Amino acid sequence: MFTAAAESFLKQAREIQEEELRRFASRVAAVLQGPEPGPEAADCLQRLHLSVAASKYPRRLDGKFVDLLQTVLCSPKSPEQIQLLCAAILREMSPCNDLTLSCDEIRDTKLLSLVSSVLLAQGNKKAEVSAVGQRIVKVLERRLPEGQSARYLLPVLSNVIRLSPESLTEASPWGSDLLHLLSQPGPVTEVDGAIATDFFTVLSVGQYYTEDQWLNVQAFSMLRNWLLCYGAKGLKPPNSDDKSGMDRSVVSVVSTTSTAGRLLPPKDRLREKAFEYCQRLIEQSNRRPLKKDDGDLQKACLIEAVTIMDIICEQDSSYVYRSVSFLKVLHSRISGDATYARALLPIARFFLNHGKTAAVDSDAIYKHLFTDIPAQLFHNPSLAFEFVQFCKDNTQLFTETSSVFRQSFPNLFKFLAWNSPPLISEFVNLLPFLLDASTAIEIFHLLLDLPCLTAALDVQLRSTALPTSERACDPAVKPTTCLEAFRHPQYKSMFQYLLRTKSAPEEAPQRLIPLRQLLGSLSSSPRVVQCAETVPVLLELFFRVVAEFADARLINQLVVLLLQRSDQLYEIPAFKDDVYRVLSSQLVMLCKLRPALVVELSTEILEFSGTVSNIQNKEAIFTHLVWAVGEYLSVSYDKRCTVEQISRFFETLEAMLFEITQLRPLASTPSYAPRAISVLMATLTKLAARSQDLIPRVSMFLSKMRTFVQNPAVTSVYSEEDLEEILIRATELMNLLKMPSVAQFVFTPPVDVASTRFQREVNETLPFALRIVTRLLEPAPGFVPG
Q1: How far apart are CA 608 and CA 622, in angstroms?
Q2: Which 3 state secondary structure label does DSSP give 394?
Q3: Is the pLDDT of residue 112 over 70?
Q4: Who wins on pLDDT, 563 or 210?
Q5: Cis preceding-peptide flag for 712 (omega within 30 of 0)
Q6: Alpha-helix residue ranges (DSSP H) falling in 419-449
Q7: For the residues of 171-214, what is the DSSP string, one character each?
Q8: What separation in angstroms does the CA of 409 have from each of 229, 388, 597?
């Protein structure tokens, strides 16, 4: 957040008008044209930079003023601060048509860096990126004059690689200079204080650093990008046939190259030197640092070194055999140290990429990574993000390689449960790769229990932080808190199942019901609430993916579980409402996907739809399920549908409608969703149209709805609009049943019409059709037949 003064400055800068900006630029120009720009010029340039940079809209300055800024920037008399500010203003105005800067003749490395930054900001409209890249390479190729430093140029070259890797040639002489920079000796020590006996690296320690040592650090920071851009096989950047550059490149490294190394082309020589550098870093990472910061640097360099070795092996498989045993030893050394957990990811990636080439069994590495790390370090946010990103970037893990990955998906959900907001987008991309016919049911339960898992992880963390003396529990005493229950035999197996590290599809999630109740005390925890908010998004994605491969058996299983689990959710009211909303819409989708399930699952559907409390507590699911019964319980969708089945459903739903519309004393009249009443009436009408013996019963029931909506006990709990809608729908349905043949066609289309566009249009316009029928059967007042 900005201070009040800073906010005020920014507001003034954003609100300055073009005319005022031009006048201010004229004053700045007058100051810059003075004898020697000083503090006043610096202050004016700072204000101008703020005015140009603060607005999201591009600012335009006079062409003459732009020329002046370029002149001052390139003038050897200009102070460094003035040059920096001129370059910053020119960058903010990019792309600029009035720019005439060129880096061709500039020899001062600081000035070359500033001018290059302005040119790179132009967007390569006039091949600026290529020109800058070629100029930087030429400067680096030659011996720099005394007092000049290449340190200012390496970041520019790194930007060139990022913006336009093809703009530099394959035989770039700077690749050899990179080798030279990576192998400079120096009077330094190791991180543990021992005198260094090998070449300098980024992990070497000294009281001060020479220019070459600073360049060594910078060269290592861009080594990975350089290898990715110019080390790949088959890459032929522009002018790659120019042999003169390669010859100069080889000559430039003679002083640091062995006799055998002289025979290697520059690209191979770079790989060789980079590989040696990474090996040295990995060896240095085994030393015990004297300072904590050096320990953090060790881990970061170890990750980068293994990543670079992986890239080198991708480009040249001859390095694989030299790397495998080396990295296996490294894994054995660091796998027991939780502080090195992030370094295990590039090691696992290496064996994924090269395990087959080296013919090594890497299952132990994968097993440790996917079993132990998520279970122990789910609360480390940076590791959680990198771990899930690793899975997302290597989705073949879950389709091709070891079964370890497919069995460990419950562990991955611990990362999501603990770090929900930052990981939700990553899991949206990852979830489809975890789902197939064998995992869908278990993942469905995992998603519904995700907030419960967050609460259990919280209890686990707090339990491990307790002193040993407080961890003991008496099995004979019933636990009263979550912490006591965590180690109590009665709940221990439930916690173990919820916190499992491997897939357990044969286990019954119903066993978690007591645990969900126990963990209810944590339902208001911010972390648990945040996790609960991510579940609806993932549930919708889950059903969308499953719909692509689900067979009849899986669809039926999901519908049954959907109805069962609606009673077994973690007690967060907003969470339950959101889940019911998603489940109800997905229930309709599953029924549309396979209408026959209404007949096949008639027992389960009748049990759910025949429970009055479901209307009150799970109205969305109840209403959509009743709608599905009315829509799909028909011989048009399933030849096995019989009159007896229609009658069974009719009687159950009739009893439900009677229960919620029967007249009671004023004080005891409950309120039910008007939508549920309307859907029940419509479904009963549809069933009666398919079994016309039922029409008199429905007609009589619908005729009583006027009495229902006019009763004082009812009008006191329903709004006038809702009662009017219920009465209109009852009248429309009753009128339609007066023409049984029309009702039968509308509600029970022939088999060859049921799924046609015509019938879809009939369903979409059904409310309009009902009103037309009503007008036909109930003429307007005053109408006298002729």
Answers
A1: 8
A2: coil
A3: yes
A4: 563
A5: no
A6: 420-434, 440-448
A7: T-THHHHHHHHTT---S-B-TTSPBP-S---TT-B-SS--HHHH
A8: 35, 11, 30
